[in-house]
User: Which sequence fits this backbone?
């Protein structure tokens, strides 16, 4: 069983739209949306929910106003500015609380509770391309990567149960915890970039991250025709790192047209764009060691 | 006035809007890049960097001679950054959130503050204003600790007066909330595509409870459908500017140009946007109602 | 008294090995001379945002075991186990607890020199 993850460094390069198309092209796979902060893949796949689970992670502090004597020790000890005065007592701001337990442990009146934090939900759904494992973190929740690991675990178990050869993941933007978690156990990371100063800058960071974690890495240049000189610079960068450029896709409003119809690009009549994408997919299968 | 430029979805144009506003701003302005995972603002504002410093997080260091292996530190730590294993005290500095709990609870004073490198903070000038950015070290999983230190520097630099504009990271989880939570006004940048609209709603759900005045910029207007306008109307969210979907603009952006400088029409859009932001920030102006 | 721990999906010798360490359902602790067993439930690890492997290492260290048999272990947990001299036998998923113990006793389990997994949570 192989795991391919589509990442981007910079947001808005087309990662999710392309992942949707790969989900269409791939045979026998489990699809996984690891962008638990702002998931979008479901907008293309119209999933029918079959299972829903609550996600609890870490704890948060809650001051019991009946027991609080307003000594203020908690506020003075909190390194995260999460405790403020509130009327006669003190209050924890759940959006700032780090769940460290310091205020709970030091409160002389034992006035602070420490319940588990309900951070989000995850789902297993059916789609026209196969099973989808996805999630939604609640706003302001810590995106520690834990939920990403839960989804990957579920996807792997489903792959075993369905005898699927591939877990195909839509990754998160950036280079932080969720992306690092997404890379764990991946056989191939494909970065979707664009020929803009931000696109190249962020690609360099995400390439270095994959190198650091020793994940096989390849690149797709989307909207290549917006700036062909920048595209050439990206190709140069990839050549130096010995990372294959799988495709150069033209800037095409087709992607948005498909999105509005709730379809993926490869479900519309064929164009240069979709042909290039299919070739990229074949190369990805080879790189990831997927037999055909 | 501190204004935060945010969005649910990555790639909608936060940095574009921030850079353009910075060039039309009247009065002293500090431009701040809080997207510490993928900082891009410098690519457009071309600041002259005058100083930089490594950002460190305080993590525990053990004096084994004093440690009695009582385990009080390990019992308190919610992040498993410190652990008592038999007659050994192990620390995992990369797991530490810097809460200071172990240092405070140790009865033997066996723990002292050590450092973990988070990344780097740099500051300088751009145009007639100031510039401040953070850059997360590759492999460092958490962005909020570095973001907090950049915000401390922001407050120091603003002590002499003037405004600040913050380029926030994308998403709605804790890094994004961290970036907007101490601002006076939030500007939400979105695009009218299904992904843009979906993530915009997530951002509104996340930030509305903060009770700050919020305004919207619709980028790539004309690209998708009209649902976003209806939604803003229903929620009483003022649309302060629209930037049209135009290949000329896309290509200028791809060349690293600031959008407000592409045409006099676009400059006027941003001058008008600035004026509307100032109006929004005025006390007595109807604020966004807190989300129930 | 020679005690070893095996990551397990359940409390008995005939349960399947849980391939994970940090987030394993639980640990069967076997006293090798008598084959007496004790079960340590690891349910609380599910809520931990991070550090489950380190916590699991603490749990089995407190139980006084000298060896761990499991599927895979991440680098931080491996470091914690190595620090207290608990040897690790990896890649044993697919076996029952009993089968793993027998394989260990017949000398067919190679003790790991390094973690066989990247860091998870």
Assistant:
């Amino acid at each position: 069983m192989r795991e391919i993850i589509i990442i981007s460094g910079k947001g808005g390069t087309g990662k999710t739209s392309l992942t949707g198309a790969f989900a269409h092209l791939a045979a026998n796979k489990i699809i996984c949306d690891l962008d638990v902060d702002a998931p979008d893949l479901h907008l293309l796949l119209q999933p029918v929910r079959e299972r829903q689970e609550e996600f609890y992670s870490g704890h948060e502090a809650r001051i019991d106003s009946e027991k609080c004597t307003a000594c203020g020790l908690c506020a003075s000890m909190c390194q995260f500015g999460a405790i403020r005065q509130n009327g006669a007592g003190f209050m924890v701001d759940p959006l700032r609380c780090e769940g460290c337990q310091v205020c709970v442990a030091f409160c002389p009146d034992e006035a602070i509770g420490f319940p588990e934090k309900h951070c989000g939900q995850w789902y297993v759904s059916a789609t026209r391309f196969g099973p989808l494992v996805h999630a939604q973190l609640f706003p302001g929740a810590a995106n520690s990567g834990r939920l990403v690991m839960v989804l990957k675990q579920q996807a792997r178990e489903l792959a075993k149960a369905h005898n699927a050869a591939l877990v195909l993941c839509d990754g998160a933007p950036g280079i932080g915890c969720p992306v690092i978690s997404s890379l764990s156990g991946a056989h191939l990371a494909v970065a979707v970039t664009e020929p803009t100063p931000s696109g190249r800058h962020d690609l360099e960071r995400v390439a270095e991250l994959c190198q650091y974690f020793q994940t096989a890495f390849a690149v797709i240049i989307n909207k290549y025709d917006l700036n062909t000189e920048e595209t050439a610079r990206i190709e140069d960068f990839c050549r130096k790192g010995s990372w294959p450029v799988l495709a150069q896709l033209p800037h095409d409003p087709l992607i948005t047209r498909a999105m509005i119809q709730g379809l993926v690009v490869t479900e519309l009549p064929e164009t240069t764009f979709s042909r290039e994408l299919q070739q990229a997919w074949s190369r990805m299968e080879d790189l990831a060691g997927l037999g055909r | 006035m501190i204004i935060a430029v945010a969005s649910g979805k990555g790639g909608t144009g936060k940095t574009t809007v921030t850079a353009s506003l910075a060039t039309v701003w009247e009065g002293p302005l500090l431009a701040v890049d809080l997207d510490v995972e993928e900082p891009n603002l410098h690519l457009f504002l071309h600041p002259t960097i005058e100083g930089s410093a490594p950002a460190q997080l305080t993590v525990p260091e053990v004096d084994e001679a004093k440690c009695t292996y009582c385990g009080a530190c390990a019992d308190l730590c919610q992040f498993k950054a410190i652990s008592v294993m038999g007659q050994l005290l192990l620390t995992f500095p990369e797991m530490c959130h810097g809460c200071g709990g172990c240092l405070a609870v140790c009865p033997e004073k066996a723990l002292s503050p050590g450092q973990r490198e988070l990344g780097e903070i740099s500051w300088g000038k751009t145009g007639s204003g100031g510039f401040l950015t953070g850059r997360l070290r590759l492999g460092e999983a958490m962005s909020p600790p570095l973001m907090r230190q950049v915000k401390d520097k922001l407050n120091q630099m603003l002590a002499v007066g003037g405004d600040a504009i913050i380029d926030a990271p994308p998403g709605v989880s804790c890094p994004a909330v961290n970036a907007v939570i101490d601002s006076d006004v939030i500007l939400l940048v979105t695009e009218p595509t299904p992904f843009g609209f979906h993530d915009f709603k997530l951002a509104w759900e996340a930030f509305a409870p903060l009770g700050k005045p919020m305004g919207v910029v619709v980028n790539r207007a004309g690209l998708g459908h009209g649902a976003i306008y209806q939604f803003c109307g229903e929620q009483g969210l003022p649309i302060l500017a629209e930037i049209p979907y135009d290949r000329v603009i896309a290509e200028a952006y791809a060349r690293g140009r600031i959008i407000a400088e592409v045409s006099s029409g676009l400059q006027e859009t941003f001058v008008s946007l600035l004026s509307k932001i100032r109006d929004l920030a005025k006390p007595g102006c109807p604020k966004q109602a807190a989300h129930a | 008294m020679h005690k070893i721990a095996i990551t397990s999906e359940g409390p008995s010798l005939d349960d399947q090995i849980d391939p994970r360490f940090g987030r394993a359902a639980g640990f069967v602790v076997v006293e090798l001379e008598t084959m007496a067993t004790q079960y340590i439930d690891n349910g609380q690890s599910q809520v931990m945002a991070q550090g489950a492997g380190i916590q699991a290492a603490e749990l089995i260290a407190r139980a006084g075991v000298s060896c761990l048999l499991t599927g895979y272990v991440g680098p931080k947990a491996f470091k914690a186990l190595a620090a207290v001299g608990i040897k690790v036998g990896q890649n044993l998923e697919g076996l029952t607890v009993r089968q793993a113990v027998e394989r260990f006793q017949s000398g067919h389990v190679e003790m790991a020199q390094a973690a066989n997994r990247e860091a998870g949570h």
Observations:
- Residues 287-292 of chain B have pLDDT under 50 and may be disordered.
